Amino acid sequence: xxxxxxxxxxxxxxxxxxxxxxxxxxxxxxxxxxxxxxxxxxxxxxxxxxxxxxxxxxxxxxxxxxxxxxxxxxxxxxxxxxxxxxxxxxxxxxxxxxxxxxxxxxxxxxxxxxxxxxxxxxxxxxxxxxxxxxxxxxxxxxxxxxxxxxxxxxxxxxxxxxxxxxxxxxxxxxxxxxxxxxxxxxxxxxxxxxxxxxxxxxxxxxxxxxxxxxxxxxxxxxxxxxxxxxxxxxxxxxxxxxxxxxxxxxxxxxxxxxxxxxxxxxxxxxxxxxxxxxxxxxxxxxxxxxxxxxxxxxxxxxxxxx
Length: 306
Hints:
Blueprint: H1 2-7, H2 18-22, E1 26-29, H3 31-34, E2 49-52, H4 60-72, E3 76-82, H5 89-103, E4 107-111, H6 125-129, H7 133-136, E5 141-146, H8 161-177, E6 180-187, H9 191-203, E7 210-215, H10 220-229, H11 236-243, H12 256-268, E8 274-280, H13 285-296, H14 301-305
Parallel strand pairs: 1-2, 1-8, 2-3, 3-4, 4-5, 5-6, 6-7, 7-8
GO molecular function: oxidoreductase activity
InterPro entries: FAD-linked_oxidoreductase-like
Keywords: Oxidoreductase
């Protein structure tokens, strides 16, 4: 028992700014993971934005049905629309029409998608946005990817020129069209790259709100696996350092430290574009939601009604 107590990590305390920052969090699901939750009202605060990841090979019928369920249970579905998996304009229009008519969807995360080659004529989120089809089918809010740690898939030389140009284009598109847009990042494990990137965006005049992605509570081995698969950048070293510390292998990683740093920065920087947190529930939807609700002082929809 003495040895176990010695190796038990001290919990990171939540900072004063964190509850407000985490309130209004969004969360990501897939149709197959959503099926593990009997009713989202038992898990999420009313009105939570729920991103629905479109993994390659998932039938559009499953995506539309999941979006409808999320909407029917009182939440805001935001399905991914991955450019490189869409084989043409007709397919894109069919997807957007079905989301709007069958599921009442008005929001989407528009992104390139993980495929190396485009299935049709779309190879980027910008190509999808330029079709005008989102506006035609009543989509009123569009989120796009932001890359605080760069992306080797986009800038193979390790720089940021192409991702920076893309961020500028997305900002200009929002200005030109009046679209309600925001940037959402891949999950990170260190606040420094996010803060530096947000300041660089602001200096460049790119003023889209930023929703910072973080991984919900999960085993370290799970996080390492996803971090490698998703090409996480410099903040991956935080996980590597943790893996070398035996005392931190006892319980799941929680993103409190990185969230504290980001929340403190946002609270002390009135003109910061950092607007909130997006949870990737790598250790499970229920675990991620319980963690966020505990810190933010929020309650699932059913409990709040009761």
